[in-house]
Amino acid sequence: MHPIPVSVPLPELQYQIFFDSVELGPEHVLGEVGHGFDILFESLNPERILGGAVCSGIGRYAMGRAVDYTNDRVVFDRPIGAYQALQHPLARAKTEVEMASLMARKAAWLFDNGQPCGAEANMAKLAASEAGIKAVDAALQCFGGNGFTKEYGIFDLYPLVRLTKTAPINNEMIHNYIAEHVMGLPRSY
Amino acid sequence: MDFNLSDEHRMIYEYGASLAKTYDRKYWMECADRRVFPKEMYQQTAEDGFVGTMVPEAYGGAGAGLLEMELLTEGLANHGIPLLSYVIGSVMSMGPIGRHGTEEQKQRYLPDACAGKIRFCFAITEPNAGTNTMRITTIASKKPDGRYRLNGAKTFITDFVESDYALVVTRTTPLDQVEKKTDGFTLFIVDTKAKGIEAQPIPISVPFPEVQYQVFFDDVDLGPENILGEEGKGFNILFECLNPERVMVGAIGAGLGRFAMDKAVEYANDRVVFDRPIGAYQALQHPLAKAKTEIELASLMTRKAAWLFDQGEHCGAESNMAKCAAAEASIHAVDASLQCFGGNGFTKEYGIFDIYPMVRLFKTAPLNNEMVLNYIGEHVMGLPRSY
Predict the structure, then answer these.
(1) pTM confidence score
(2) N or C: which end of chain A has fewer CB within 10 A?
(3) Cα nearest neighbour of A13 on chain B
(4) What is the nearest CA distance from B190 to chain A, expressed in angstroms?
């Protein structure tokens, strides 16, 4: 087992793992031998839903901090939150975050009702990762240089939301799924 | 109009490629992770004659201009090894000292600075003034004996403690006592170890080798020999610092964008996940192609701004456009590159995400793109002031 140093601040470590003749018995099998893929879907769709939840929440957290700061900070003659160049990107990101959050909740509800939730889980992950990135970026811009300091810690929110555009599955593969399996377009890869 | 680089310009532009054979991105990142100045690399560039690019030959420099400095910096950044000291020292401090310093100041500071024996940094930003430079309150008060007492605080001062001297932007007349807001500014050459100076590092989440400081001046003794140019007329010199700073940011942004994309192209041509190299997918290829276009556009504007500066013409519009365009282009370039690498891009080993914080910082600093757009909207295009 080797830890993989990554540039994303999160408490958990990443590992590279090697299996070399590890002994396992029937008591370790979850479900049926050879039918694991069905269970896998029950892990992967909820993973996307939780990814959506994390991004929506971090987006809201960053924007909450930005609203407090921009209501307070005066550089010329009014609070910087009064400038459209800062306010509109925040408002836009707020809208995107709330929509992504709704889709994540709908996907979770479908899952709990035993209904297919692939389309919704994928859309939620895609929308939330993009909304989270925009929310953190718009918030960061409000803080000027302070946003990059450890003390204010706004940039430190960015690596995790940006990672969700790439992992656990990249947004390109999500687009592929939505286009091909939800909309009926030809396979592109 | 001739878009070909001369042999000399090509040599300057390609210097980064040869320097990177000894001091590569890995070396630069090791310095960044430990926050230690890349002394050996800097010394090498000094010995190769580049630190004093903009300093007259009589004082140990190359007697060249901002265009040469831009090409050099773009070349370093193309290989992921930009030096901020070239921005704050060579361009923003040594350049103006060469143009506005007294004979004594030039003799005293420039030969040593060109040789890499001493370093300069630049101190303008204040916590309360932010982007509104008019409101800076660091004040040098004149005493009856003709000397000055410097008081105030600066923040986000790059490399302050490690530098020997700082070019400090002060007011010698407070804002409420001047006729024109731009009156009353004076630039001082300040010994960073002088009595009455305290500096505290500011931990930041952007990997580069130089440290950021908050600096406090408490009755620091200065004399007329420390003034660059004329007392109260510092604002004119300031423009010669701030526009070139934007040009240098454009150069670093364009270069880092290329550096990331070069790595992405190599990886995407090689990596096969389904049945062809992932570089064949339009979802990866088109964002890279678009960012490539934006980077080359921004690079051209950056070079044009540098050229105008060297001709003694106005370069405010072009410097601002170059900075804004390069910041956005480099963000797009690094992001598109990062997406090609999947999870690997976030590892220290591949180091693609590690390029991102600096290019993202350029959207915010040294001046945020909103203020740059305000300048273009108001002063270049003639729209009403919006702030």
Answers:
(1) 0.95
(2) N
(3) B347
(4) 24
